[in-house]
From TrEMBL:
Keywords: Electron transport, Iron, Iron-sulfur, Metal-binding, Transport
Protein name per UniProt: Ferredoxin
InterPro entries: Fe-S_cluster_ET
Species of provenance: Sphingomonas oligophenolica
Metal-binding listed as a keyword: yes
Transmembrane helix in keyword set: no
Superkingdom of this protein's organism: Bacteria
Length: 76
């Protein structure tokens, strides 16, 4: 599993970092400091919770098969 973050869209709510400051580090101004990472084995639940905590929905959970499981994708 991988996390992808639209860093430029971060507004600094820091809710992801409240879930895990190690997984979702913030810069000196309080914005997300990473564009994404591979989720360590056993840390999937924490990564999902951090993604879901973002009210802006700029944190994407990419499954091993390449599908996006969060945020929900609009149906066509």
């Amino acid at each position: 599993m991988r996390i992808r973050i639209e860093k430029a869209a971060c507004v600094g709510n820091a809710r992801c970092a409240a879930v895990s400051a190690e997984m979702f580090p913030l810069d000196d101004d309080g914005y997300i400091a990473t564009e994404g990472f591979d989720v360590p084995e056993g840390q999937e639940k924490t990564a999902r919770n951090g993604a879901r905590a973002c009210p802006e929905r700029i944190i994407f959970v990419i499954e091993d098969d390449g599908s996006i499981s969060w945020p929900p994708q609009a149906s066509a």
